[in-house]
Every structure is written in structure tokens, then in C-alpha cells.
Amino acid sequence: MARISKEEKRKNIITAALQLFSENGFYITTIPDIAKKVGMSVGNFYNYFSSKDILAKELILYISEYLGKNIRLINESDLATEKKISAIVTMYFDMANEKPEMIEYFLRVYLSNREVFGDGCEGMICVSPFITEMMIFFEEGVASGKLHNQDFFSAFGLFMGYLGGMVFLFGENILPEPLENYKESISQNIYNALKTRT
After folding, report:
1. Cα–Cα–Cα angle for 136, 140, 146, rounded to 5 degrees
2. Of 34, 59, 109, 131, which one's alpha carbon is 20 to 30 angstroms from that of 123?
3. 75 vs 24, 94, 101, 141, CA distance in Å?
């Protein structure tokens, strides 16, 4: 039987913790719960993460890096700005379908338990890989003349408000159709809201 590497065990902890925190909340989920789900002792768990708070911060950084990496691929592509918006929407909706625990963690743990993320995660530090790529997307859209120049957080809030709202409705089983059926209309709405006024 092949031995699991330390990096694989660490990834298993991250996956299990994302699921448990998303389902049960941050405060109800215990380190023994996570260790049990992964099939390791609590003592062994501490070889990977020294506290639940440190694990929580690692998880939000993991999600941010995942988003940042995927948006960077879109930013580096030859797609026009409108098509890049569509690609970001598609990526985010696919993530909501395939990795819902990541979205749930962001909405239900990171945004709802900000006190946990104070020390070492001040401001946007723990989501900077994601924020940086979104800044690049907006800067390039403005430079190309396709997006109108505005405050980053206004543009970012608009973009993520659309995505977050739709994913929330999807997670609550409120949408009458599958999430992917809304990709085109949401992409168009975002572009219309952000494009240069003529």
C-alpha cells in the first residue's frame, strides 16, 4: 500500500475542514471532528496545523489562491474583455457546482466570523491572490477602453454581488433552473454595468 505524503495529508485535512466548517459552522466544528474525518489522531493533526484559527486562515488563503490562479489564466488569455467576464462567471459557477464547500466557507465562515481572521488576515491580506487578479482584470479592461474607469471596490462589489447573489440563491435551492442556465444573462448584465458609456 502506497504511503500518503505529508502534502497529501495536508490537502486531505484542508478538504475535510472545508466540508465540516461549511456544513456545521466554525465554532461547532472541533479539531477532533476534523481529525476523525481524515482518519488521523488529534496529536498527528497538530503536526500540520497548530490551531483551528490557523487552519481557518489557511483555508481562506487556499480558496483565494484557487480563484486567483483561475482568474490569472483568464487574464493571460487573448479573450476580449466581454469574453473574460463570461469566463470568470463560468469559472465561478462551475466552482459553485463542483466545489460548493469553497463558496460556503467563504460566505458562511470567512464573511460571518471576521473575528477569527483578524490577526494575520487584516483587511484583504488572506484574499489578496484573488483580489490582485481582479484588479488586473479591471485595469486591463479600462486600459483597453472597454470598461469605464471607477473605484475598484465599486466595480468589484458589483461584479461579486451578481455572482455571490446567484450562488447564494443556487445554494438555497431557490433558482428555478440550473445555475449554468444563467451564465450568459449574468455575464451580459455585468458587462453592461461595467462597460464604457458611449
Report:
1. 135
2. 34
3. 35, 18, 25, 10
Q: Specify the pLDDT at position 119.
A: 78
pLDDT (mean) for 18-35: 93
For the chain, give every domain's residue range.
1-50, 51-194
* Superfamily in which the 51-194 domain is placed by CATH: Tetracycline Repressor, domain 2 (1.10.357.10)
**Closest CA relative to residue 130, chosen from 88, 186, 187:** 88
CA 62, 67, 68, 73: dihedral to nearest 10 degrees? 130
CATH code for residues 1-50:
1.10.10.60
Find out whether 26 and 113 touch, Cβ atoms under 8 Å. yes
Please give the distance of CA 170 from its chain centroid, rounded to a whole number: 16
Tell me the average pLDDT of the chain: 92
CA-angle at 62, arms to 68 and 111, nearest 5°: 90
